[in-house]
Amino acid sequence: MDAELRQTIDGIGPRLRTLRRDRALTLEALATATGISVSTLSRLESGKRRPTLDLLIPLARAHRVPLDQLVAAPVTGDPRVHLKPLSKGPGSVLVPLTQYPGRVQVFKQVLAPREPKLVTHDGYEWLYVLAGELRLVLGDQECVLHPGEVAEFDTRQPHWFGPATTTAVEILHLFGPRGDQAVTRTSSPGPTAHGHG
User: Fold this and answer.
1) Distance between CA 47 and CA 15 in Å, rounded?
2) Which pLDDT does position 191 carry in this prediction?
3) Which residues of 61-77 are buried (b: 16+ CB within 10 A; e: fewer)?
4) What are the pLDDT digits (tens) for 18-56?
5) Residues 132 and 165: beta-carbon distance below 8 Å
């Protein structure tokens, strides 16, 4: 077996352990979710058991990560996310900055001018303008955000955001499940003045 292949296979066990610990799962809970015995999971993580597809596929599914992330991800200890820009129509690009689905997800986004179309869905959004001007429509309210300005809102409200001008806008975009607000507020709870906009 060549050195690179051995290194890839040797990296799978520690990666599986990291994924499981990141998700605060016990071996028992993972065994229940995958149907793989605790002893097999333990031997996989410690490198004593060769990872095979019939073991890796249920684990990838349980962790909600693509199979290639288990096999060919950077070695454990490298915290860098490998950025893969995704084209979202002419002039619009989405760059995922996190790699775990199911929790708060972070994107860098370039939005080209487009027609406003209000949408609603479960969740919570937080937008930070990096460059350009962002037009945000929330229900019957509307505001324009400039670089360095932030907006956060419950996505059950009808909303839309895009460039305020004829040029693209660049933003950081955090999206979390409902009740999983990305930003910790420093102000005291209750009716505080949020009328900037």
Assistant:
1) 11
2) 43
3) ebbebeeebbbebeeee
4) 888 888 889 999 999 999 999 999 999 999 998 988 999
5) yes
